[in-house]
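Pilot study result, target chain (198 residues):
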Amino acid sequence: MTRRTPSGAAVLQPAITAAIADAVTDELVEKGLARLSMEGVAARAGVGKSALYRRWPSKERMVLAVLADLVVPLAEVPDTGALYTDVRATVEAVTAWITHPKFGPILLDLAAEGTRNPALAAAVTEAIGGPRRERAFATLRRAIDRGELPADLDLELAADFLAAPMAWRIVVRRAPTGPSYLDDVTEMIVRAIGGTAP
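Predicted structure:
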């Protein structure tokens, strides 16, 4: 039997998905994950709840899918051809991610919720944290291949070095960052993971 191509309500229209994604992020900024509801997202997006449930089985899956699509690409760092400039681009990207007017507060909220909900924390790691770290690993492996870092480098620890200083300075200390600070922290990270800063 030939299967009929879905049409009408059965088709997941990109424009509706985009409107829902915008509604999810706006609701998260205003209310946080705990108070976000499928009803609220649907109302803000101007769609019925069925449009949400056709795409995701729960609000948690909806939130993670939307954020993964929007946030993970922010971790993309171009291959500049050198460790120092790769790390400099990485700390700049991390800074932009943490200070983003929408995504920064949202991801901090998810981190807080994750301390009370281990299943959510694991899901956030799988959907967002893991893919972001893979991009950091790729940067480090390129440097190893170029001979700029030792072959036995602990990738997990080195990846922590790429993000942790910015998270600590911005989230915990609430201290300013600027080009000169990013230059200094880049040099320190490169030396800490076994490279040579120019």
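One observation from the pilot: The two ends are 66 Å apart (CA to CA). A full batch analysis is planned for the follow-on phase.
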